[in-house]
């Protein structure tokens, strides 16, 4: 394209600039990259070191201590780092606070860890923040074995990331732990003077008896071990002596109370949710398998085999399992999976963030399990 008259430039205009740039480049010293020795941050630092460098050093030291499972030392380094961190760096502040909470959880200081998680929650501004908070709370509640809170965290994570197979697998296992719960303690709250119960009948972890429903097909849950659920880890350890005292007794009471509060019909729904969640997790792992290799593929296949064993323990007929698989995979379109994997972090308002963090079980069940109702009519997501 020719420039209009009066806008042409003579080549001589640029010659001086070219000569000056060439002269400067010939005089500039060669670039020398900084080389750091392994674990250079573990060395003693000088007093003249600036705060920015000190922050990084303490952060690296904390990360290394955490990797070595030296959680007290890691917590000390993270606390020192946080004290030096300027308010102008909120991203790193959130990262350090999360690290502190994880150290506290490992040290058994769960209340303090949850307080930090609550602080992070109050400052959340986008979906990435919400994911971190829910993941942190999930770690803490899993250590506390608080099943209802575990399920609540997983509901939130799945609402944000519906194509994450690991979350679905964890949710299925959490539901299953409610299906297979310890028999109630004696009326006096004791078990033979808090003694060890070695008999499988005394420690009987029972699943509620499942009914059969008919509408085109019959859904039959038939546990493979008579009167007990053979797929739960607790049930597989029935031959091992179980101590019901102290913390174990409290956990025993909690699980029994959770099961009693659900009722028979609700328990049946929970078992369906568990199986359906396993089925969806398997579908997602199978889709991911197409683009995996090496250790990632090996881990994927191992998870699929675990799920296969768990699904088989429900004793579903082939046609029923096919219908459940079809219902839980209706939205699994490769294009949607690709969009989710490449999804951007979304900044949300306070109301939207709160709804994600406080999504009720009813909302979750209505969204993900109501598609089963056309095949299994007794499954009713209550309002």
Structure description:
This protein is mainly alpha-helical and 383 residues long. The protein has a domain at 165-372. Helix content is 59%, strand content 4%. The protein contains 15 helices and 6 strands. The protein has helices at 12-27, 51-67, 71-84, 90-106, 110-122, 127-144, 147-160, 165-179, 233-236, 247-289, 294-313, 318-328, 334-341, 350-357, 361-369; strands at 180-182, 196-197, 205-207, 213-215, 217-219, 242-243.
Mean of residue pLDDT?
A: 74
Number of helices: 15
**What fraction, in percent, of the residue positions are helical?**
55-70%
Report on the biggest sheet. 2 strands, antiparallel
Stretches where pLDDT falls below 50 for ≥5 residues?
A: 182-248
User: Major sheet: order of its strands?
Assistant: 1-3
Number of strands: 6
Q: Supply the helix-strand structural class.
A: mainly alpha
Q: Provide the β-strand percentage band.
A: under 5%
Helix-strand string: HHHHHHHHEEEEEHEHHHHHH
C-alpha geometry: globular
What is the CA-CA span between the terminal residues? 69 Å
Gyration radius, in Å: 28 Å
How does the SSE layout of this entry go?
Layout: H1 12-27, H2 51-67, H3 71-84, H4 90-106, H5 110-122, H6 127-144, H7 147-160, H8 165-179, E1 180-182, E2 196-197, E3 205-207, E4 213-215, E5 217-219, H9 233-236, E6 242-243, H10 247-289, H11 294-313, H12 318-328, H13 334-341, H14 350-357, H15 361-369
Antiparallel strand pairs: 1-3, 2-6, 4-5
Descriptors:
383 residues; mainly alpha; two-stranded antiparallel ribbon
């Amino acid at each position: 394209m020719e420039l209009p008259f009066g806008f042409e430039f003579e080549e001589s205009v640029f010659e001086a600039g070219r000569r000056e740039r060439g002269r400067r480049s010939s005089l500039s010293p060669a670039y020398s990259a900084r080389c750091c020795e392994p674990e250079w941050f573990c060395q003693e630092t000088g007093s003249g070191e600036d705060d920015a460098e000190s922050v990084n050093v303490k952060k690296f030291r904390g990360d290394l201590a955490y990797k070595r499972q030296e959680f007290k030392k890691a917590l000390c380094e993270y606390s020192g780092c946080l004290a030096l961190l300027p308010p102008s760096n909120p991203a790193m502040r959130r990262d350090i606070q999360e690290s502190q909470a994880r150290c506290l959880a490992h040290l058994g200081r769960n209340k303090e860890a949850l307080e930090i998680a609550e602080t992070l929650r109050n400052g959340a501004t986008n979906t990435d923040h919400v994911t971190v908070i829910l993941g942190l709370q999930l770690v803490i509640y899993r250590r506390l074995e608080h099943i209802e809170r575990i399920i609540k965290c997983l509901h939130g994570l799945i609402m944000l990331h519906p194509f994450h197979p690991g979350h679905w697998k964890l949710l299925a296992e959490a539901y299953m732990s409610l299906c297979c719960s310890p028999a109630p303690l004696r009326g006096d709250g004791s078990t033979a003077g808090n003694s060890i119960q070695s008999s499988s009948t005394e420690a009987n972890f029972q699943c509620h008896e499942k009914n059969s429903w008919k509408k085109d097909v019959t859904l039959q849950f038939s546990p493979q071990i008579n009167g007990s659920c053979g797929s739960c880890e607790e049930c597989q350890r029935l031959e091992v002596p179980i101590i019901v005292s102290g913390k174990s007794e409290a956990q025993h009471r909690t699980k029994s109370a959770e099961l009693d509060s659900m009722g028979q019909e609700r328990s049946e729904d929970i078992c369906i949710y568990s199986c359906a969640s396993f089925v969806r997790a398997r579908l997602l792992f199978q889709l991911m398998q197409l683009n995996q290799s090496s250790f990632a593929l090996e881990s994927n296949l191992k998870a699929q085999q675990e799920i296969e064993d768990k699904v088989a323990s429900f004793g579903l007929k082939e046609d029923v399992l096919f219908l459940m698989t079809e219902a839980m995979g209706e939205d699994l379109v490769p294009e949607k999976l690709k969009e989710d994997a490449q999804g951007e972090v979304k900044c949300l308002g306070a109301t939207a963030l709160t709804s994600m963090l406080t999504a009720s079980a009813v909302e979750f069940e209505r969204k993900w399990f109501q598609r089963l109702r056309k095949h299994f009519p007794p499954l009713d997501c209550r309002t």
